[in-house]
Design a protein that fits this description.
With 589 residues, this protein is α/β, with parallel strands linked by helices. The chain has 3 domains: 97 residues; 162 residues, no CATH class; 203 residues, Rossmann fold, CATH 3.40.50. Helices cover 58% and strands 9% of the residues. α6 packs across α16. The radius of gyration is 33 Å and the shape is elongated.
Length: 589
C-alpha cells in the first residue's frame, strides 16, 4: 500500500504546481485582452494606420496562451484521475471500499455459474476486479469472466498478467486516460454501426465544385477590397448561396455519415491516446506483443489514424450547429470537403475499427487482472495439467479480507466430494471459494492459494436459483431445469460441478432419493466437484463408490455455551448438531 500512498503524495504536489501555472496563464490571457483593448483604443485616437497591425500581437499571443491553457487543463484532469485511482486502491485495501462499477448490466441468471458465484452486482467478483475505464473494457472483462480461455491461452494470459502487474505506473496512466471522457456502450455501438455501413464516394463533379465555387468567392471578395465595388459584394453573396446549395445536394449523405453524439470527437480521441500508450510501450510477453502488433498493420501509427477519425467525426457533427454550419459551408463547403476525407478514411480503415477497439478492451481486461495480482502478491498462478487433477494448498476466498480468510487444502482424488455441515458452518462459502478460484484459473489469473495444480474445465453450478414468476416457474422447476442442463453439458465434456442443497422445494424422502440419483448420474458422467447436503443419509452412498466419492465436512463446536465455527475442512461426515442449540439460545424453542 506504500506505493499508492507515495503516488498520491507525488501527484498532489504535481497538481499544486499545475494549478499554479494554470492560474498564471489565465492571468496572462486577461492581460492580452486588456492589451488588445488598449491598441484598439489607439487606432481610434491615432492617425497612424500601422497601429492596426499591432493588434496582431495580442491576438497571436492570446492564441498561443489558449493552446498552453488547454494542455494544462488536460494535464490537471489526468493528474486528478491518477490521484483518485491511487486513493481508491488505498481505500479498497484498507477498508474494502468498492468505488468501481459493479457490472450489474452483465448479469445472466441462466448462465452456468454467473448468478450462483456472484459475478456481477454489489460486492461481486467483477466489482473487485474491475479497473476498466471504457465501456469496451467493461464488456470485455464481463465476457472474459463468462467464458474460459483455452489451456494454451491461459498460459499466455498468465505471462501477460504477470508482466503488467510489475508495471503499475504504466497501468495507472492507461487507466487514467481510459477514465477521461467517459464513453457509453451506445456510443461505442454507434461507431461500429457507422464503420459497417457502406457509402459511395462523393461524386467527382461535387468535389470539383467544392474547390471552384469557394475560389470564385475569394476572387469576388479580393476584388471588392481592391475596388470597393458593391456589385462584387453582391456577387460574393450569390456565390455563398451557391456554396450552400451545393452542400445541400450532399446533405443526405452528410447526415448518414454523422455519428450523432456531441462527445464523439472526445471519445475517439481518448481511444487514440490509449492506443498511443500501447504503441510506445515495450512488451515481453507474447500475448501483449501480439496485441500491440495489431496497431502496426497500416502505413502510419494506428493512434494517428484514430485521431484523424476523431477530428473528422467531430467536424461532421458540426452540421447540427446551424449558425456555424451556414458560415463555414457558405464560405468553402466545409462539410463536402470533410465528407470526402471521411469517406477516404473509411475506405482505408473502417474494417479494422472493431479489432482496434476490441484490442483496447483486451488490454483493459488484462490490466484489471494485473491490478488484482499486484494487490495480492501472496496469490499464486496455477500450474496446468491434463490429467484431471485439481489440487489447491491453503485455498481461501479471494474476495474476503485477509484477516477473515480461513484456508484449506483441497484435492479431488477421489474426484467427487459429498460435503456436510450445519448451517453457517461454511459450506456455501467453500463452494464459492472453489468456484471463483477455478474461474480465475480459467481466465489466466492468479488464485487465492499458496500452491495450485489444476486442469482447466468448464464450471457448472446450482447453488442459488430464484423463482421465475414471469415464466410461471417454481424454484423446484427452475432447479430441475438447471440440473438437466448440467447433465446435458456433462454428456459432451468433463466439467467441475458445484451443487448446494438440491431439491429444497420438495419433501425429505424425494429430496434424499433425488439427491442420491443425481450423484449417481454425476459419477456416470465422470464429473468432478462437490455436492453440499444436510441429509447425512446421502453420505452412505460413498460406501458403494469408494474410488469416486469421499465424505468431508465442516464441524461446529459449543464452547462455554457459545457456538464456534472453525471453517476447517475435515474428513468424514458432520457429527455435531447446531440448529437445536441455536434455536434454544435465541429463545425460539
Amino acid at each position: 500500500m506504500s506505493f499508492y500512498h507515495q503516488r498520491v503524495t507525488r501527484f498532489q504536489e504535481e497538481l499544486t504546481n499545475l494549478n499554479r501555472r494554470y492560474n498564471l496563464i489565465g492571468t496572462l490571457r486577461f492581460l492580452t485582452v486588456l492589451l488588445a483593448g488598449f491598441l484598439i483604443y489607439l487606432t481610434q485616437t491615432s492617425p497612424e494606420n500601422w497601429i492596426w497591425f499591432l493588434i496582431l500581437i495580442p491576438v497571436a499571443l492570446f492564441r498561443y496562451l489558449m493552446v498552453i491553457h488547454e494542455k494544462l487543463s488536460g494535464q490537471i484532469a489526468l493528474t486528478q484521475k491518477l490521484i483518485q485511482i491511487n486513493q481508491n486502491e488505498i481505500d479498497y485495501l484498507a477498508g474494502g471500499a468498492l468505488r468501481f462499477e459493479n457490472g450489474i448490466q452483465h448479469q445472466q441468471t441462466s448462465h452456468a455459474y454467473a448468478f450462483d458465484l456472484d459475478l456481477f452486482g454489489e460486492k461481486s467478483l467483477f466489482q473487485h476486479l474491475n479497473r476498466t475505464g471504457t465501456s469496451i473494457g467493461q464488456e470485455a472483462l464481463a465476457q472474459q469472466l463468462l467464458n474460459r480461455l483455452s489451456d494454451d491461452a491461459i498460459v499466455e494470459r498468465q505471462r501477460a498478467i504477470q508482466e503488467l502487474a510489475e508495471n503499475p505506473e504504466w497501468r495507472q496512466h492507461f487507466l487514467a486516460f481510459a477514465q477521461t471522457g467517459q464513453d457509453t456502450a451506445e456510443e461505442y455501438q454507434a461507431i461500429l454501426q457507422w464503420a459497417q455501413q457502406t457509402s459511395p464516394p462523393v461524386k467527382p463533379i461535387f468535389r470539383m465544385l467544392a474547390f471552384a465555387v469557394p475560389a470564385l468567392l475569394v476572387v469576388c471578395l479580393l476584388f471588392f477590397v481592391i475596388t470597393w465595388d458593391t456589385d462584387l459584394l453582391t456577387l460574393a453573396g450569390i456565390v455563398g448561396v451557391i456554396n450552400l446549395f451545393m452542400v445541400s445536394r450532399n446533405l443526405k449523405q452528410i447526415q448518414s455519415e454523422t455519428v450523432d453524439s456531441e462527445r464523439i470527437g472526445i471519445i475517439i480521441n481518448k481511444y487514440s491516446s490509449l492506443i498511443a500508450l500501447i504503441e510506445k510501450e515495450s512488451f515481453k510477453s507474447p500475448e501483449l506483443e501480439t496485441l500491440k502488433q495489431k496497431y502496426y498493420s497500416q502505413n502510419q501509427a494506428t493512434s494517428v489514424s484514430v485521431r484523424q477519425l476523431s477530428s473528422l467525426l467531430a467536424a461532421m457533427n458540426g452540421i447540427h450547429h446551424a449558425l456555424a454550419a451556414v458560415l463555414t459551408n457558405g464560405l468553402y463547403q466545409s462539410h463536402v470537403h470533410t465528407l470526402h476525407q471521411l469517406l477516404n478514411w473509411k475506405a482505408r480503415h473502417a474494417a479494422s475499427i472493431k479489432d482496434w477497439l476490441g484490442t483496447l478492451g483486451t488490454f483493459e481486461t488484462i490490466n484489471s487482472f494485473a491490478n488484482f495480482a499486484y494487490n495480492n502478491p501472496d496469490f499464486t498462478y496455477p500450474i496446468l495439467n491434463h490429467s484431471g487433477d485439481i489440487f489447491f494448498k491453503n485455498l481461501a476466498h479471494p474476495l474476503l479480507r485477509r484477516e477473515k480468510r480461513v484456508a484449506n487444502d483441497v484435492s479431488f482424488n477421489p474426484r467427487f466430494i459429498i460435503l456436510t455441515g450445519s448451517n453457517m458452518s461454511g459450506k456455501s462459502t467453500f463452494l464459492r471459494t472453489l468456484g471463483i478460484n477455478l474461474l480465475l484459473t480459467n481466465v489466466g489469473s492468479c488464485v487465492c492459494a499458496t500452491e495450485a495444480n489444476v486442469q482447466p474445465m468448464d464450471i457448472l453450478v446450482s447453488m442459488r436459483l430464484s423463482d421465475s414468476l414471469a415464466d410461471s416457474e417454481s424454484y423446484f422447476f427452475a432447479e430441475v431445469k438447471r440440473l438437466k442442463s448440467i447433465i446435458t453439458t456433462l454428456n459432451e465434456n468433463v466439467c467441475f460441478v458445484l451443487l448446494d442443497e438440491i431439491f429444497r422445494g420438495t419433501n425429505s424422502d424425494d429430496k434424499r432419493s433425488g439427491t442420491i440419483e443425481v450423484i449417481k448420474k454425476l459419477i456416470e458422467k465422470r464429473a468432478i466437484g462437490v455436492i453440499a447436503t444436510h441429509d447425512l443419509e446421502v453420505c452412505d452412498i460413498t460406501a458403494d463408490y469408494p474410488e469416486v466419492l469421499s465424505n468431508k465436512c465442516f464441524e461446529a463446536e459449543i464452547i462455554n455455551d457459545e457456538l464456534f465455527f472453525s471453517y476447517q475442512l475435515l474428513e468424514g461426515i458432520c457429527q455435531n448438531r447446531s440448529a437445536t442449540f441455536l434455536m434454544r439460545k435465541m429463545g425460539v424453542i
